[in-house]
């Protein structure tokens, strides 16, 4: 009975953290263009991404060690303290932009709720970027634990520890990708659409190779390499939103984008799991490779028609 009570509390805690994280990401991503100049956005995104990957690597490795030596309760207390420090640190961030007053009437609330989706659709750059992200989010469910574990056991013929190796390799690749984006920031800033295309195409090719390969060591190398273009794509897409939407409404647009992404991801987990059961786990990865290819094709189709620098920013009408 006591174990059940603890489990319920943990589930509630996880829900609350995830709920608050849904607020944090749009706000954090919206702050970047407020704090740095336009030509520094790519570097800022790369730096934040690098820090995020480093923290994940340290968190996963140190977390396991701390649980062994001091126990899970103390680790949870440390986590709570770190979250509190993170919250306090926000008070030291000075937003140089002017605050925007927003009406609180019912009509205005509905307008704000629908504003993000409407303007994502009306802006060609954001529409294509979001559509790409939906395809890639659907494909990205291949990296959830349940599907990777099946791939490790039935294709690579390895134990559960290789699931951890693949995750570590993926995070390391994304960290390298963030560093690469930092050094290529000037080029990415000028060629955002090209960066999106090349990174999506690279992920597509590497996913197909991963699906058809049976060697576990080669798989680790592929996942490591895949993390680099995946991170470049993510940084490029985030920068596109930040450069094409005004500061005051960027949180609304990011929130609308996030809702779509989370909905598609939830659906993709269900469908990819079903495909794995019916047709085998390799089919899932081949399907994902196809979706990444469609994403790259979308970028190629829009590349010659839209100049990112000439695209008009979405402006606040709230």
Automatic annotation (TrEMBL):
Read off the Gene3D superfamilies from this record. Answer: MFS general substrate transporter like domains
Protein localization: Cell membrane
Q: How does it sit in the membrane?
A: Multi-pass membrane protein
Identify the keywords attached in UniProt to this record, alphabetized.
Cell membrane, Membrane, Transmembrane, Transmembrane helix
For this protein, the parts annotated as crossing the membrane are 6-23, 73-93, 134-156, 162-185, 192-211, 217-235, 247-272, 284-302
Q: What is this protein called?
A: Major Facilitator Superfamily protein
* Molecular functions (GO terms): transmembrane transporter activity
**The keyword Transmembrane belongs to this UniProt entry's keyword annotation:** yes
- What's any one GO cellular component for it? plasma membrane
Does rRNA-binding count among this protein's keywords?
no
User: To which species is this protein native?
Assistant: Aneurinibacillus thermoaerophilus
């Amino acid at each position: 009975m006591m174990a059940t009570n603890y489990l319920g509390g943990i589930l509630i805690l996880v829900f609350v953290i995830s709920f608050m994280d849904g607020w944090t990401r749009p706000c954090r991503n919206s702050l970047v263009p407020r704090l740095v100049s336009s030509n520094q956005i790519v570097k800022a995104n790369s730096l934040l991404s690098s820090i995020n990957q480093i923290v994940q690597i340290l968190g996963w490795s140190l977390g396991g060690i701390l649980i062994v030596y001091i126990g899970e309760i103390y680790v949870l207390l440390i986590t709570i303290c770190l979250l509190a420090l993170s919250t306090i640190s926000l008070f030291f961030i000075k937003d140089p932009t002017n605050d925007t007053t927003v009406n609180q009437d019912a009509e205005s609330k509905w307008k704000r709720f629908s504003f993000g989706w409407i303007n994502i659709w009306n802006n060609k750059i954001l529409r294509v970027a979001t559509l790409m992200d939906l395809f890639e989010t659907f494909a990205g469910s291949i990296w959830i634990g349940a599907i990777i574990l099946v791939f490790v056991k039935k294709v690579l013929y390895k134990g559960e520890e290789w699931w951890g190796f693949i995750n570590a390799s993926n995070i390391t690749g994304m960290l390298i990708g963030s560093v690469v984006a930092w050094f290529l920031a000037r080029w990415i800033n000028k060629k955002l659409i090209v960066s999106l295309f090349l990174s999506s195409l690279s992920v597509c090719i590497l996913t197909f190779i991963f699906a058809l390969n049976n060697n576990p060591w080669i798989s680790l190398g592929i996942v490591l390499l895949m993390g680099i273009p995946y991170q470049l794509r993510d940084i490029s897409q985030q920068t596109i939103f930040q450069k094409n939407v005004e500061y005051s409404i960027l949180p609304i647009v990011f929130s609308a984008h996030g809702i779509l992404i989370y909905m598609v991801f939830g659906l993709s987990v269900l469908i990819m799991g079903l495909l794995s059961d019916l047709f085998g786990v390799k089919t899932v990865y081949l399907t994902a490779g196809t979706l990444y290819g469609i994403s790259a094709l979308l970028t190629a189709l829009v590349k010659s028609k839209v100049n990112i620098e000439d695209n008009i920013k979405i402006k606040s009408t709230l």
